Amino acid sequence: MRFCCRSLCHINCVIANVMSTEYDNKNAVQGYDESLAALSYTSPGYISNMLAGLIVDIENAKVLDLAAGTGWIGQGLYKRGFRNLDAHDGAQAMVDYCKKTGIYKDFFTCFIGDGHSLPMKDNTYDAVTCSGATVENHLPPCSQGEILRVIKPGGFFVNGYRGNLSETEVEYAKEWHAEAERLEKEGKWTLYGRLHFRKYLTISGGTIDITRLIRLACDEDLDNLSSLQPAIRAHGQQNTIANKLSHSRAPPQLVIAPF
Ligand SMILES: C[S@@+](CC[C@H](N)C(=O)[O-])C[C@H]1O[C@@H](n2cnc3c(N)ncnc32)[C@H](O)[C@@H]1O
């Protein structure tokens, strides 16, 4: 897939080049899986466990595996009973690989970044998961606004990244977190929980952020909460935004089982 065209800004072109050389061909796909297996890549397992602990109606919860690569998160979620999974990636070769796994229902090949939207409608997913794409020349910080747009009110964005990101990619990490905080200050979502774990890869630790959408403003929104925990729904029905916001800051009931 080629992204470079005059209408894209420079940063989009850089990302597009990285994607086409590193991810968008069959050799890259195979090499990618082998190198991650060799490095004991654990983040997708943690993410799957965390999401399984947050959602009650696991079988029906609609989940987008964003920047899915070869689908490690999808496989983790499938093992834990999730059956309503979609895969997204900017690299067609990765999406083609995901199709072969038989795990996902729908597939989206598209770039997400400055000026590039996801094709899904607002409030489509109970959760969006992502791992390994919060890094320079991958997901631009501004893509977070687009990610939250497709998550249902009360739903989750569960995102794993290298724990030393702030040291190795100082500017990018600053911008990513500043954008997350800006969206939080605007009342769009809240950092619901953060897990630091020791082995993201053999060579580095990892972090997983769970961000939760806080757009519980009307009854129609509450109807969309079908897959979330009953306690969250019951609380929402008290119908004051303040209550809903304070509830959304409560600690999640996580079940971080070994994998
Ligand atoms: C390091 S891989 C992670 C894949 C997978 N999530 C995993 O944990 O194995 C990053 C993936 O993100 C995709 N990607 C990176 N930046 C992207 C963007 N801006 N839009 C769409 N896909 C992107 C790449 O094509 C690649 O498949």
TrEMBL record:
GO terms for molecular function: S-adenosylmethionine-dependent methyltransferase activity. The lineage of its organism: Eukaryota, Metazoa, Spiralia, Lophotrochozoa, Mollusca. Residues 64-158 form the Methyltransferase type domain. This is Williams-Beuren syndrome chromosomal region 27 protein-like.
